[in-house]
Design brief:
This protein is an alpha+beta fold and 813 residues long. Helices cover 49% and strands 17% of the residues. The protein has 24 helices and 23 strands. The strands form three sheets. A six-stranded mixed beta barrel has the order 4-5-10-7-9-8. A six-stranded mixed β-barrel has the order 15-16-21-18-20-19. The protein has a four-stranded antiparallel sheet with strand order 14-22-13-23. Helix 1 packs across helix 11 and helix 2 packs across helix 11.
């Protein structure tokens, strides 16, 4: 048996070398399909397939709050509820909370802002992570006043401390209060949690009873107890939520809890999981089209090998022997295509990575081409080789010796069954291409709609820079904070080409914005717990509306006089006016933020702003109110500097102005507002670009398939065409005959493809903006375009058929 297999391999290799044109086309076609599959698999493998690199990852879950009345399927957790969960939740072995924190590293020149996380003491034990140097903090150190310890990432240890083994005991500082934190350990090099830029980890140190614990600020994670399922944990936490609602109705009425697998939660953020599954489906369709194309080539080649097959059958070759020989050739072809596909994926991975949006992952450098991708490529190539090789192998092997001998005597004309099989393969190619093209058309149209979504503000010529932070010691009260901001705005206004300056807590990015803030409108009756009056807050500096180019419908914006010594004022948007003041003038109305300290402060509405996409492109405009920075103690934010059209952003000038006032304040992420908005479209641009590429390949493969079948049919029917022309058929009759065959195949494929597209496009609904999954224009334009392509593919063999010489054709065989 081994000898026979080796003989088959040698013979298959000789046959492929003997037909270099066929081999090159087949390997290239397969390499394109497998390369696309391997490249997308490399991303999907890191995000949704590989288990998390922690101890028993299947037991790790997220535990977050929900609010049905606001259609929030998840929200950050309040500190008070987390404390109660720690005490009462009985489904978890560990439960831990996380909150983003900022730190600074003292160095020569401008201090460096360091991204960090504050986590509770059970966080690292929950994950099963131990530092390579030092230790983790104890529960006693996770308390206010005893929490001045920190762990640092391996990368931070290498780059900022030179891998110093005596790093334990050194100090970094927290930005907001300049408190020192002593390094007690270094985390392993393979540790990463969702983000790439987290360098510092410190205790969370919640303070029970503090007003700060009312805010929904914490991500909560847990490890299930052995034997406890997700459903059991969900039922237990739902019961606990009901209990807390009875005990704390003012803060917990209407709030629920959701328990989800940790990996599934992060892969669902930003529709990442759906996008990758759609792309995997698309490359799967592309591979099927490639396999259908190669199967057609093999069928045609098998017809040309009838004499060889007839001889094999005549001297005793069994059906199993013929199938093995044909499958050996297919497998060898598939392995060559798989190797080529892996190389193609490896070469194209760099450009692919540049298109990939930010995806949460839990391994450093998780996205890459590795041994798993190679094994996947080889596995797909074996699957594909069997898929495209089985049809011709079975078709040839099940015929009797008399059929082989009779077919061998007829040259390459082939049987009706073979012709039907080839036609069916082409129809399937066109149908699969239609499904892929319709999905691509919908996503491209959705991206176009997002790009042209009405912003409601002018994003051109606006520089943004993150600024952090005014510390409590130097700026203890609102008065000192306001003095800094006013001096900063004055200095920035004097920079060349600067037209306006402002600051804000929220840029128009497409990110999770939470549930909004509970407010009480003076003219409305108090809302009941669970059905609160809610609006989104935006804290902005004077001249914000001018800087952003947001028109005011009525009233005025903020000025430097709107500070803590004057009347507390607010500006609201049109959506909030329509919702809470539908039949009255909102100017002069008052509202208060229920949870704002000090309690009881009423804000008077002085302006009505036009609606704008404060939450980013494609996001609904919600009820929004704007408050003055000078009336709320905010110690950092995003600077906004509008310049004259066509001028360079004054990054250096802004840095100098800030440093002239306070050298401890850090600036980071200098970008234009246009760039930020463009980056927010990266998920849609990623999927639309790749699907467009795959769609182009599908069109090429489908058109080649149509061309190949029609051209092969013309060769088979040369004798018939000669007879027709000898009997008086005109060139246009022959053209119509050949084109008619191709059009019939195309129309059959289009009909099947539309059925498949209508069944599958609903899966894209969460990825679309401003376009229906059953968009009629796309469902009409795509079949028309592909039919036209098929017609063009038929034209060359049809034109060749019209040039057949009847005398030559009659002597053809």
């Amino acid at each position: 048996m081994v000898r026979d297999v080796l003989h088959d391999l040698r013979y298959a290799a000789r046959m492929l070398l003997k037909n270099p044109g066929f081999t090159a086309i087949a390997v290239l076609t397969l390499a394109l399909g497998i390369g696309a599959n391997s490249a997308i698999f490399s991303v999907a493998n890191a995000v949704i397939i590989q288990p998390l690199p922690f101890h028993e990852p299947s037991r790790l879950v997220t535990v977050l709050e929900t609010k049905a009345s606001q259609n929030l399927d998840w929200l950050f957790v309040t500190g008070n509820n987390f404390i109660q969960w720690q005490r009462r939740a009985d489904s978890f072995e560990h439960i831990a909370a996380l909150q983003g924190c900022g730190y600074r590293l003292a160095q020569e020149g401008e201090p460096q802002l360091v991204q960090g996380n504050c986590v509770s003491a059970s966080f690292f034990p929950m994950l099963g992570v131990q530092p390579i140097i030092g230790r983790v903090w104890s529960p006693e150190e996770d308390q206010v006043g005893r929490d001045r310890v920190t762990l640092i990432s391996h990368d931070f240890w290498q780059t900022k401390f030179g891998g110093d083994k005596e790093v334990v005991g050194k100090t970094i500082w927290r930005t907001i209060d300049r408190q020192p934190f002593t390094i007690i350990g270094v985390l392993p090099p393979d540790f990463k949690f969702a983000r790439d830029d987290i360098q510092v980890w410190t205790p969370l140190a919640l303070e029970p009873g503090s007003p700060r614990q009312l805010g929904h600020l914490l991500m909560v994670y847990a490890r299930l107890k052995p034997g406890v399922s997700i459903d059991q944990a969900q039922a237990s936490m739902t019961g606990l939520a009901t209990q807390l609602e009875r005990e704390f109705p003012a803060t917990n009425t209407g709030w629920g809890v959701t328990v989800d697998p940790l990996q599934r939660f992060y892969s669902d953020l930003g529709n990442t999981r759906t996008t990758l599954l759609v792309l995997l489906g698309a490359v799967g369709l592309l591979l099927l089209i490639a396999c259908a194309n190669i199967a057609n080539l093999l069928l045609a080649r098998a017809s040309a090998r009838q004499r060889e097959i007839a001889v094999r059958v005549a001297i005793g070759a069994t059906r199993g022997r013929l199938i093995r020989q044909f499958l050996t050739e297919s497998v060898l072809l598939g392995l060559l295509g798989g190797a080529g596909g892996f190389i193609l994926a490896w070469v194209s991975f760099g450009p692919l990575l540049s298109l990939t949006p930010t995806i949460p992952s839990f391994r450093p450098h998780a996205l890459g081409i590795d041994s798993q991708v190679f094994l996947f490529s080889m596995g797909v190539s074996l699957f594909a080789s069997v898929l495209f090789g089985l049809t011709p192998a079975l078709r040839v092997s099940k015929r009797e010796i008399s059929e082989h001998l009779r077919e061998a005597g007829r040259g390459t004309k082939g049987t009706v069954r073979n012709r039907l099989t080839r036609n069916a393969l082409v129809v399937s190619e066109i149908a699969l291409a239609i499904v892929l093209l319709v999905g691509t058309g919908l996503l491209v149209k959705s991206l176009h709609n997002l790009k042209n979504d009405r912003l409601g503000f002018n994003s051109a010529d606006v520089l943004t820079m993150g600024m952090c932070c005014l510390n409590n010691a130097r700026y203890p009260t609102q008065k000192e904070v306001n003095t800094f901001y006013k001096q900063l705005f004055d200095r920035l206004q004097t920079l060349p080409d600067v037209e306006a300056v402002a600051i804000t807590t929220g840029l128009p990015q497409r990110q999770f914005d939470g549930a909004g803030s509970v407010i009480q409108v003076r003219s409305l009756p108090p809302s009941e717990p669970g059905h609160e009056t809610v609006a989104d807050p935006r804290l902005v500096g004077p001249d914000y509306f001018h800087t952003m180019g947001i028109p005011l419908a009525r009233g005025r914006g903020f000025t430097v006089q709107d500070d803590d010594e004057h009347l507390a004022v607010a500006v609201i948007n049109e959506s909030m006016a329509r919702r809470y003041f539908p039949d009255q003038d909102p100017i002069g109305q008052q509202f208060q933020m229920v949870n704002l300290q000090p309690a009881g402060r009423w804000f008077t509405i002085v302006g009505l702003a036009k609606d704008s996409r404060d939450r980013g492109l494609g996001r609904e405009t919600r009820s929004t109110f704007y408050l003055s920075y000078l009336q709320t103690t905010i110690r950092g934010g995003a600077l906004l500097v509008r310049t004259k059209p066509g001028t360079q952003p004054p990054v250096a000038g802004v840095r100098d102005a800030v440093r002239s006032l306070n050298q401890d304040v850090t600036l980071n992420d200098a970008k234009t507002l246009d760039a930020i908005i463009g980056e927010s479209l990266s998920p849609e641009r990623f999927s639309a670009t790749l699907l467009t590429l795959f769609a182009v390949l599908a069109i090429c493969l489908a058109s080649v398939g149509v061309y190949g079948v029609v051209a092969y049919t013309v060769v088979q029917r040369t004798h018939e065409i000669g007879v027709r022309m000898a009997l008086g058929a005109q060139r246009r009759d022959i053209m119509t005959l050949v084109l008619g065959q191709g059009i019939r195949l195309a129309l059959a494929g289009v009909a099947l493809g539309l059925i498949g597209a209508l069944a599958s496009t609903r899966l894209l609904s969460t990825l679309l903006f401003g376009v229906s999954p059953y968009d009629p224009l796309t469902l009409i334009a795509v079949p028309f375009a592909l039919t036209l392509v098929a017609l063009l593919a038929c034209y060359i063999p049809a034109r060749r058929a019209t040039k057949v010489d009847p005398l030559v054709a009659l002597r053809y065989e």
